[in-house]
Amino acid sequence: MESQLKKTSIGADQACFASVDSGSQANLSATTLPSTPLQNSAKVAILLCTYNGQSYLAEQLDSFAAQTYSNWEVWASDDGSQDGTAAILAAYQSQWKAGCLSVHSGPSKGYVPNFLSLTCKASIEADYYAYSDQDDIWETDKLERAVNWLQTVPKDIPALYCSRTRLVDVDNKPIGYSPLFAKPPSFANALIQSIAGGNTMVFNNAARKLLQKAGENISVVAHDWWAYIVITGCDGQVFYDPYPSLRYRQHDNNLVGMNSTWGARCKRLYKLHQGHFRSWNSDNIAALRILQDNLTPQNREAFEQFAKSRHLGLVQRLIGFKVSGVYRQTVLGNLGLIAAALFKKI
């Protein structure tokens, strides 16, 4: 256990609210975030889901402690780990200041229900909410960048920050980046594609209220895709930061890994052929019915057109998808979308 539990460099009296010098942080951003004064009074609740995560969890917790934005607290939901995860969480809980880390039992139904249960947990109160996996490493300015942008959005408007990621191997050695998407985030894109991982996402209370209204017992394929759909559909704002805000660890035990390799693309084509993509869309559509009154009139019209077109004949189906305006971020992705429409796989 000692070898897995790394000692954080921040003392127990400072952990959770410490700051570090970010001068050494490489600036890979192609976009400059709004330079608004950072209000440290805004609290961020980090929603961390764990399951048998002892191999990398300590490194992730240490990256929280190293954040340049210091007003955060961690809510960990463990889905019944059988390894040393609970002991690691307990050790950090005793080392950090009281209230910095609380540990709860998850629903033990998989990672999506676990994240949704945290999202809807009424006892969690904060200004912003950050999803976190157990095996990544956050760059020191991840929360600072997210909060800087979120503070430019009025509180009554749903808002979601997300970003690109730096891919690393099991030893934290860089192996590449996630795709850099150029088209703007939108509901028409969200209906058939998720552009960023939940591990990069930070959202405000207006966004959280929508997710809570939909509830934790819905059947959706991914919590991050669901958040993107809901917030863009309900007149919210989404900022996709081209700066890689975290190190996304790729290893054999990833529940969801990076999907930009040719092997991953072939796997997606196989799932498309098997009808998985159509099934996922059916689940998302059913869940979105709960919030259809919150959709903007334009998005409600696009949603109904998209939902109806999936069941039409070939010509009407293609016309319907065109009218709905759905699109993917890349040329290859849109070619795949056309193929899926042709063979009724959407």
Summarize the structure.
The chain is α/β, with parallel strands linked by helices and 346 residues long. It folds into two domains: 44-249, Alpha-Beta Complex (Spore Coat Polysaccharide Biosynthesis Protein SpsA, Chain A); 262-342, no CATH class. Helices cover 36% and strands 16% of the residues.
**Poorly predicted runs of 5 or more residues:** 1-15, 17-30
The major beta sheet can be summarized as: 9 strands, mixed
| Quaternary organisation | single chain
Can you write the helix and strand succession as a string?
A: EHEHEHEEHEEHEHHEHHHHH
Number of strands: 9
Strand portion, in percent? 15-25%
Enter the CATH topology name of the largest domain: Spore Coat Polysaccharide Biosynthesis Protein SpsA, Chain A
Mean pLDDT across the residues is 88
Work out the helix count. Answer: 12
Q: State Rg.
A: 20 Å
Could you state the CATH homologous superfamily of the largest domain? Spore Coat Polysaccharide Biosynthesis Protein SpsA, Chain A
CATH hierarchy class name of the largest domain? Alpha Beta
Give the name of the CATH architecture of the largest domain. Alpha-Beta Complex
In total, the number of domains comes to 2
The global form is globular
